[in-house]
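Filed under: proteins

Residues; backbone shape codes:
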Amino acid sequence: MAMYAYIAGTTNDDINDQGSIACQIDFLRQTNVDYDAYFIDTFTGVCQARFQLQKLLMVVKPGDMIDVMDVSNMTSNVRELCCLLDEIEDLQITIFSDELEMGMSNSREPYYVAKMLCRADMVTMMQRSSNRKKMCQMTHQIDLHRDKSNKREITQQDYQIYNLLMKSDYRTTQQATGLSRSTLYRLKKRIQKR
């Protein structure tokens, strides 16, 4: 039977921040358990991939134990939590934390599982809210950009180029003005809108 430690969090070195790797390592060292290996997932920005957890789940054998500071660090949404619970059953392993021992031999505490489900739902809701805010901000930026392009005043020279374009073709106007075909097209559309 092997004992593994799993840690997931930010690279923040603040030992009082429970989401930091430093705090979790300190917590696990205080247990005075000699772990066979530490598996550490580092979160940067919005990326919360748990590659080391997947690696750990491939290494464990039936009867092995995984020690974590908080079981909710192992998942970030309901889907991941459900998959983790299924894997615990399939692999016949035990996960220890301060609040809970999850494994095949003992019944799961419904309160704690419900708490993890609520936390995972909250994280998902916060991610959706963040994505919605980003979309609104991007839409606002696009609208600002569009407004700026339409605010350019049409000069007398622009009208002269437009008249030349209407009397001849694009190639002749390009050679006479030195403007590209796309610039002439935009100028034509802008004048026609007015």
Notes: The chain has seven helices and five strands. Strands lie at 3-10, 37-43, 65-67, 94-96, 101-102. The first strand starts at residue 3 and ends at 10.
